[in-house]
């Protein structure tokens, strides 16, 4: 069964918090990947559908320039979206997604190199 719904992307999708199936926050929606009805890339003037929501490091790119490689753009397939409300609820757990690779990279390559950055401060009390 195909479910279709017309939504105003600016109002209902962009900048909304994304929650996994357990209600755990993942990230906010930064952008959308639009496709045509047949799944091909969207063309100007044609009917479009949301193929995926992008939750990548758009802010870093806007601040520092460059582009995120297509292979590293965290995307969540539209078929994994279960409910659109004040937040976007997914039907999959967060560990099935690669949406937090930026945080892991920063933890391992930046924060981890700061003295004391590799341990939990609460554990030392």
In which range does the helix fraction lie?
10-25%
Order of SSEs: HEEEEHEEEH
The class by helix and strand makeup works out as alpha+beta
Given as residue ranges, the uncertain stretches (5+ residues, pLDDT < 50) are: none
Number of domains as seen in the coordinates: 1
Question: How large a portion of the residues is in β-strands, by DSSP E?
Answer: 15-25%
CATH topology (level 3) name: SH3 type barrels
**In the CATH hierarchy, what is the architecture at level 2?**
Roll
What is the name of the CATH class? Mainly Beta
Count of helical regions: 3
Distance between the termini: 55 Å
Largest sheet: 4 strands, mixed
The backbone outline, from C-alpha atoms, is globular
Question: Count of DSSP E strands?
Answer: 7
Q: How much is the radius of gyration in Å? A: 17 Å
Describe this structure in words.
The structure is a single chain. The protein has helices at 9-12, 58-64, 101-109; strands at residues 17-19, 25-28, 31-35, 49-54, 75-77, 81-84, 87-90. It is an alpha+beta fold and 125 residues long. It has a 4-stranded mixed β-sheet, with no helix packed on it. Strands 3-4-5 form a 3-stranded antiparallel β-sheet, with no helix packed on it. Helix content is 16%, strand content 23%. The model has no long low-confidence stretch (mean pLDDT 81). The protein has 3 helices and 7 strands; from the N terminus they run αββββαβββα. It has a single domain, classed as PRC-barrel domain (SH3 type barrels). The longest helix is centred in the C-terminal third of the chain and has 9 residues, at 101-109.
């Amino acid at each position: 069964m195909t479910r279709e719904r017309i939504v105003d992307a600016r109002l209902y999708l962009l900048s909304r918090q994304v929650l996994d199936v357990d209600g755990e926050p993942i990230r906010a929606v930064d952008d959308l990947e639009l496709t045509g009805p047949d799944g091909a890339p969207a063309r100007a003037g044609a009917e479009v559908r949301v193929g995926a929501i992008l939750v990548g490091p758009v802010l870093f790119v806007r601040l520092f320039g460059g582009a995120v490689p297509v292979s590293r753009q965290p995307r969540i397939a539209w078929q994994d979206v279960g409910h659109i409300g004040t937040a976007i609820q997914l039907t999959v757990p967060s560990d099935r997604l690669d949406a937090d690779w930026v945080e892991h990279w920063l933890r391992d390559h930046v924060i981890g190199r700061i003295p004391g950055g590799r341990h939990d401060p609460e554990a030392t009390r």
